Structure prediction request, 895 residues.
Amino acid sequence: MSFIAFIVRRLVHSIFVLLGLSVVIFIISRIMPGDPARMAVGARAPQWAVDNLREQMHLEDPLYAQYYYWLRDALHGDFGISLVTRRRVADDIKEVFPATLELTLFAGIIMGGAGIGLGTLSAWHKDKWIDNVLRVVSYLGVVTPSFVFAILFLLLFGMSLKWMPTMGRISADVSRPSSVTGLLIIDSLLAGNLRAFFDALWHLILPGIALAMSGLAQEARITRSTMSDNLTKDYIASARSLGIPEKVIMRKFLLKPSLIPTVSILGLDFAGTMSSAFLVEFIFNWPGMSRYGINAMLRKDLNAIAAVIMILGVVFIIVNIAVDLVIAQLDPRIRLAPGRGE
Amino acid sequence: MKSLRVLSAMVVAVLIVGLVAACAPAATPPPVEAPPTEVPPTEPPPKKRVLGVTFSWPTWIDPAVGSDFSSTSSLCNLYDSLVFPNTAGGVDPQVAESWEASDDGLTWTFHLKKGIKFHNGSELTASDVAFSMNRLLEIGEGLAYVFLGVVERATALDDYTVEFKLVEPSGLFLISLIRLYIADEQEVMDNIVTPGPYGDKGDYGKEYLMTHDTGSGPYKVKEFPLEEYLLMEKYEDWFGTFAPNAPDEVRFIATTEAATVRTLMSRQELEITDQWQTIEALNALGEIEGVDVAAFPVLTEFYYMIHTKKPPTDDVHFRRAMAYAFDYDAAVALEWPGTQQSRGPVPAITAGHNADVFVFQRDLDKAREELALSAYADKLDEYSVEVHWITEVPAEEKWALLFQANMAEIGIDVDIVGTPWMSVVEETASQEASPHIVTIYVSADFPEAGSLLKVRYHSDAAPTWSQNEWLLDPALDAKIDDALLTVDPDERYAKYKDLQDEIVDLCPSIFLYDQVQKHGYQSAYVDWPAARGEVIPVMGYTMFAPVIGVTGP
Prediction:
């Protein structure tokens, strides 16, 4: 009951958050400089063509009326027509969202796996050379933007060594599997197309690692810091005095409680990656939603901007709920807190 | 840890299922016993010749929507037009076999070639031509501005004869038909979405034509994933002639990112780069083995458009002072080697260009003399000249800073303001909001001076981005109109030349340089006519793929 109540309460909160987000983004997109209709039909189009489009988009109506039309349609899954692609925004999103999701999931796995692994290694060898090296590397990782890694990887592994593919999600000579989930590596497995699977995976590696680097370093630093703190706690000393093997102490008593802050940050990093992936997507010509969103903003594509931001809002909410659930599993105190868990 | 083990097991299971599925034989009908035949030795299929070109995106392949460089490059490969531009700045017949104009110049009749097939196999007829023109006029977007106010209506007289009624005679009408891309009426109307903004025509096929072509051109759409690339394949039944090594596939790639482009070029996964690479990036591309930089003049000029109705630039002597003070040699040196200072208001390669027009050169003494003659000579400290440069073209700031420094030498205070393109479009729509100076590249629609003079200096174009000058001179308008109505080319060109003298005398603009279009390309295996100097001087046609030879990589 209380678990379900927790979920329900979070979902109800989320509705208000999304509603607020929709109002803010709607207003911001409408007051940005530049006439979206003029931008859409071209600088040399006659004024009547601009006026026609403004009428079709209700741009002559008061802002509250425009918001009403937009919200009414959005609740039915219709985000309107993109001024740039001239297609339904929902159709555009169906194409670009899986590309970004696949990339960020891949990056998230690297962030979580490698970040926690390196952080643990560093904490376990605290103040030894391996810890010092990893700390310097993780500092560099945190302060270096992902697009720098993207360009470095592109030039090194793409241009100089020519080891890796540098553009798109799949090679031109590999047939794409028919879309089921939109995630190429899953769809290719479902279709039994191993060539497409490995090719798509191969294409994911450079942009995925570039995107993961900053979060990976962050996760490593947080894991190391929390584990280092916990290593000095009495219960660890107590466990050691009882003769419990170090590996068991590490796995059972140290890692689990130390992961709580890491998981919190990992969730935020993952969701943030989805919105900040645009430079990596530009560099690797990755047809994702992040790039689509930035292009929409540059071209004042009102409906596309609103749709992308709303979807990112939903992703943030889902990830946050998921993180809360994971943390509740990791920490019994949270799970057992009144009104929070069972 | 237990859940981790479960998760791992699930992942492994999915992989195993995938492997099994991949290894499993495909479902096939029961084999039919065939008589034994001798199997000839199989040869590997010949490698496809692919031409990859990067572009600034998006690309619109609807002939009634697209109008920019990537769109026109696509349209000329996917669709045919009645006439086709040639390297001399004129036109050759394409779908049209012959044509004639009425004595009053108001009716043009075109006779079409027979047997031209659309990509879907149906025959191209006069009805399709009329439909394409009328659709363009009704939608009013993209390249419609070329015909709006010029063409009243198009009508098919029979299957192979189409008639255009003009609003008024136009010396540019014939050449403007290179921008009428002929779509298959039946296929478009079979794919309209209703209801739509065009009444019983629904959306007029706009949604369908965003990702499909209905043309008869040398290439047809094979794949068009959103914002990623446009892949076109050779249309073997095209009625024209392909060069011996013309590409089998043409891939327009949606990126201009310098590191990506450089990597693709070095891997020979890209044949021609976009035109937006910086000089530094082009120099780096030129260092790649087998890659050269092709640079050729185009119908584009870089202007400092001066507001002639706003103090202090409303004074012709003030404007001339600025024109004399500007350091053209330094400005040109900031561009690609070989770039030339403009000679007057139209690029030198344009038909009807006046090579003898007066050209301002830097002369500070003359600048000071002109400034002394201006009404603002004693009030310079009361005014500053605001220069807006386009932030989407960061290089423009260099010229703005140079201009600011040059003007300071004669005591003119200049404020430079980086302004987004769409804000420039908005502010130039109003005489009051237009700044003193806007720096803009403007391209002629057709390789003829009149097309540029009209959009740059005629009052009809005053409230648009292509004119910040606000000349609003009825006498000049009448002369431009008169030149454009003149059907005889020699007579028309003579009028254009007089107009250029008159405009330079008014000094409404500073004419910086004629733009040179620059691309890195794989000279080792791409035979690109434009790189050899055989340039069709109309936007998009340098990428007309049937004439480009690809022999590698």
User: Anything to note?
Assistant: The CA atoms of residues 96 and 292 of chain A lie 7 Å apart. Chain A touches chain B through 50 residues (CB under 8 Å).
